[in-house]
Amino acid sequence: MILFSPLTPIEHLLRDVLNWLHASIGLPWAWAIVALTIIVRIVLVPLTVRQIHSMQRMQAHMPEMKSIQQKYKADKKRQQEELMKFYRENQINPAASCLPLLLQIPVFFALYFVLREFSKHPPSGSLSWLYIVPDITAHANAHWSGYLLLVIYAASQIASTYFMSATMDKTQRYVMMVLPVFFITFLLRFPMGLVIYWVTTNLWTVGQGLVTRRLTQRTPLAQPQRRSSRTAPKTDEAAGDGAAKTEPAQAQAAAPRQPRKVKRKKRARR
């Protein structure tokens, strides 16, 4: 029997928050889990903002990153060194997209232990949800509502991956979107309340992705200026527009004027 684990403090904290939401505010246990999920996501908002900014910077510099990968394609070690140097110079954190997810994993398992304790010692109050889920502590495969929740989970996970993986490689993106379907078999043995937590998290991520796309469309990323053979070099522009305009006039004034040739008509002989 494990008397203490690193998740024990988080488990006690979640239990206290759930008890407060249920006893003080009067939320049913299932809705208390939804409220707890929203609280967790609000706490993670600063990390989420950093994640979004890092993804936007990465998307803006994607052509340069691809050119580095293409340049050092034969030397993988040099390629990673140049990419890491490029990340530091442009303040890009490739791991920023994983931080909110990694910090939710301890909450996920701590909530699992809380719900397992609920199943052993049922608290006062109804453990049903929306008159569909009879017991949030029961396994997802124990009732048809559990399968419905898993379908909603898969759809919401795919949608959240679609919105939050814009900078991923296409192959990685497809893998991340197909992975939830295989993850369903893992969630079959988990309590339905845990699936409710994960579905709420995914729906929050989808809404966050929609807001981020709306803000990105209003403030588009600065695109590098494309130059052609007709574009004047920067050194000419730095000299000033006035100097550039006076040079042709001075050249015309310095050039000597050539006498105008007049053709004389030949007189007809009498």
Q: What is the strand and helix layout of this fold?
A:
Blueprint: H1 8-23, H2 29-43, H3 45-60, H4 62-71, H5 76-89, H6 99-120, H7 144-164, H8 170-187, H9 192-218, H10 234-238, H11 241-254
Q: Which shape, going by the Cα principal axes?
A: elongated
Helix content: 55-70%
- Alpha carbon gyration radius: 33 Å
Secondary-structure-derived class: mainly alpha
| Total of helices | 11
Q: Termini distance?
A: 137 Å
Question: How many strand elements?
Answer: 0
Largest sheet: none
* SSE ordering: HHHHHHHHHHH
What does the average pLDDT come to?
A: 77
Low-confidence stretches: 221-249
Concise overview:
The chain is mainly alpha-helical and 270 residues long.
Describe the structure.
The protein has a domain at 8-58 and 96-217. Mean pLDDT is 77; it is low at 221-249. Helix 1 packs across helix 6 (99-120), helix 2 (29-43) packs parallel to helix 9 and helix 4 runs antiparallel to helix 5. It is elongated and about 65 Å long. Helices cover 66% and strands 0% of the residues. It has 270 residues and is mostly helical. It contains eleven helices and no strands.
Features:
single chain, 270 residues, mainly alpha, elongated
